[in-house]
Amino acid sequence: MSIGGSDLDKAIGQLRACRPIPENQVRELCYKARELLIEEGNVVGVDAPVTICGDIHGQFHDLMELFRVGGDVPDTNYLFMGDFVDRGFYSLESFLLLLCLKVRYPDRITLIRGNHESRQITTVYGFYDECLRKYGSANVWRYCCEVFDYLALGALVTGATTSLSPTDGPLADNTNIDSLPDSDADIEIETLNANGEIMYRYARNSDSQSSAASQANSNPASSSPVAPTPTRTGPAGTGASGSANGSKGNDTGAILCVHGGLSPLIDTIDKIRLLDRKQEVPHEGAMCDLLWSDPDEIDGWGLSPRGAGFLFGADIVKCFNHRNDLSLIARAHQLVMEGFKEMFDSTIVTVWSAPNYCYRCGNVAAILELGEDGSNAGFVRRSNGDQGGGNGGWVLGSNVGNGNNGGQGGNGNRRLSSVLGDSMRPREGPGRRYRVFEAAPQDSRGMPAKKPVADYFL
Amino acid sequence: MSSLNGAPADSHAPGHDVDTSITRNGFKVSTQKLPILKAGPIEEMTKKLGIAPPEMIFGDNFARIEHLPTGWKIDFNAFDALDRVDKTGDSMLKVSYSKEWQQNRQKQFEDIKEVVKPFDWSYSTDYKGTVPQEPSFEPTETPIPLTLLRRPDPILFFDDVVLYEDELADNGIAMLSCKIRVMPARLLMLTRFFMRLDDVMFRIRDTRVFVEFETGEVIREYTAREEKYEDLRKKLRGTGGDVLAKMRDPNQIAEHIPIVDHTLEKVVLKQTS
User: What family name appears in the similarity comment (chain B) (predicted)?
Assistant: First the structure.
């Protein structure tokens, strides 16, 4: 029986109801998925807009909540940064649903590999046992592991806008309206709750060079937050704005997504492209590091006290981003109570998408939305004086400031000036909209609330 | 950046009562269960402790037994437990594939030598609870009366509180948790540190606190067990069943792991006059 077309939609429907599909369909699905994934490079190119998600860990009902909050496939483009399986009770349904969606809408959903997508780890942390329990044999686990070997190691998002078009959502209960920037400010970060209410909003350095007047940009490595010249505002993902190597003038650098982090063996993204990924995750080497390493508040590279694995500091991230023309690294891998955590002057962010992790941590989850460049066209034109009417006070003000400043040294990218010399000016980060959500209600899981059961322990 | 992160301030793990208590014969037992700490409090704790707390740090949780007439109490919380973790790195363990990893690494990156903030990242603690100076526990020969605890007396209060948990970067588990059951005439509290470092070793460190309400007698027993991973696996193979599943459940393996440390102490609290 083949799993194409309507069969695939049927399988998606069944998995959405959290019911496993028959073994022969899994085999077929995994075969199709492998055919598809083998065509992907180690680093998948992805165009904004896209919604970036962190660890899922078999929390199927929370994955459904994620789709409710972030929009359904294929209406929303998704990039999942691995760790689909283990820990939670529904690794199988979660992974197979994502895989079905990948086969059904290959251009709408990107899956990259986490350290849990491995034979060795899944035998210890739940996925293997779950397959055995649900199918009575290890076949399905074996099919899935073969797919794991084909998953990409990273993704490169291009064409993201630097400033968000503000949502019109109402304010969340605890949000102070006075703390929000003006409605026409250049929004860099926005945090929304699961109901789309605004919890937080942050304008880009309002006194900095953030304006279209930096057309006369004297420093090619520096990005301007809005498209500097009309000729450069080509379609997202084109060579002009999307190359990872030094194309100047695009809105923001690319965003690299990996599960864990960087590796001392990898100084350029091209080196990731050269790896032979179609294997079990090795215990050492570049592929291992990409899936396992963590950022830490240190200088340079460090060794994990555990005796294996690297830690990397702010300078490593900033150099890597500069060298590869990145504005941000998005990664997952580490639990963060607030669902996301930006570090090192917003050059790297951890995104965590498993709320109430392991059904007991009580943490919230987050997803990161990157908007597409073109959606911001209104801002660009307005700053040229064509649009916006009398509404452009802020833009005008900064234009003047920039004009006076000519060479634009001191009030440019203040974020890193103390760390990096003028020759290493970082790219302006993409506009980032975080949607924060809590675990799906307990009763939707079809299992009783977790109350400790009294026992006569000794 | 913590102000960026908008976790609802009052969120708590679904299905959990925030705090509960019961009082019997002047002994008040209370527990509190809240979500893991947020970025701000974690930073604060890191500073105070001098080490990075475990990934899942239930810093607001506690389990406590108070004797209201005298004000004596024994308290179990994550901070005090972590304060007893080795912060020097002298007793640091290595993951199973560390040697292989190091050898391969050294060829290429001899310049990366610095081990970042060495400490006992297995979070092994010999924590026996936080108690006041006076009245203090004294060594005793009186064991905890297991026969009385085996009787099916009604359980008036029961709770299970996790203080911290860490996945050791997917190399096993370290977990400190408290279980407590209160019967009409007595109570038992078991605080267990369980650590499995895959392919390396197991540790179980139990602190049992027993209270006989009528006499005001409090017995504290500490039992530390330790075994190499491979040795335990061999033993378990002889017992049948799913060995991997057993190795995830300290209840099923404790009896197979040799005791390396044991203390027994007692304090008698004056009754209300």
Answer: Belongs to the TIP41 family.
- By the CB < 8 Å criterion, does A241 face chain B? no
DSSP letter at A354? -
Q: pLDDT for A159-212, tens place per residue?
A: 999 888 777 778 888 777 777 887 677 889 999 999 999 998 888 865 433 333
State the catalytic residues of A.
116
Q: For residue A240, which of A253, A250, A251, A230 has the smallest C-alpha distance?
A: A250
The model's pLDDT over A91-111, given as tens digits with 9 standing for 90+, comes to 999 999 999 999 999 999 999
> If contacts are CB pairs under 8 Å, which of residues 327-356 in chain A contact chain B?
334-343, 356
Model-level ipTM above the cut of 0.90:
no
pLDDT tens-digit series, residues A418-435:
444 445 667 788 999 999
Pick A360's closest partner by Cβ from B115, B159, B162.
B162
Give the CA distances from residue B56 to residues A62, A121, A336, A395, in Å, rounded to whole numbers and listed in that order. Answer: 19, 20, 9, 45
Query: Residue A284 in contact with residue A298, Cβ under 8 Å?
Result: no
Domains and CATH numbers, chain A: 5-159+254-317+329-373 (3.60.21.10), 177-247+379-429 (no CATH)
Neighbouring residues of A417: CB distance < 8 A, sequence distance ≥ 6: none
Cβ of A308 within 8 Å of Cβ of B15? The answer is: no
User: Going by DSSP bridges, is the β-strand pair A154-158/A254-258 parallel, antiparallel, or unpaired?
Assistant: antiparallel
Q: Is the pLDDT of residue A138 over 70?
A: yes
Mean pLDDT of A10-28: 96
Count Cβ atoms below 10 Å from residue A222 Cβ, excluding itself: 18
Q: What's the CA gap between A57 and A125, in Å, rounded?
A: 10
Give the one of A283, A338, A456 whose C-beta lies nearest to B7's C-beta.
A338
Task: Indicate the SS3 state at residue A126.
Answer: coil
What per-residue confidence (pLDDT) applies to A4? 64
Distance from CA of B30 to the nearest CA of A (A): 15
Collapse the DSSP code of B271 into the 3-class scheme (helix H, G, I; strand E, B; otherwise coil) and give the result: coil
Quote the mean pLDDT of chain B: 89
For A67-76, how does the pLDDT look when each residue is reduced to its tens digit (9 = 90+)?
999 999 999 9
Cβ separation B100–A283 shorter than 8 A: yes
Give the integer Cα–Cα distance in Å for A266 and A262: 7
Structural contact between residues A43 and A155, judged by C-beta atoms closer than 8 angstroms = yes
Q: How far is CA B134 from CA B25, B26, B73, B138, B218, in A?
A: 21, 18, 10, 11, 14
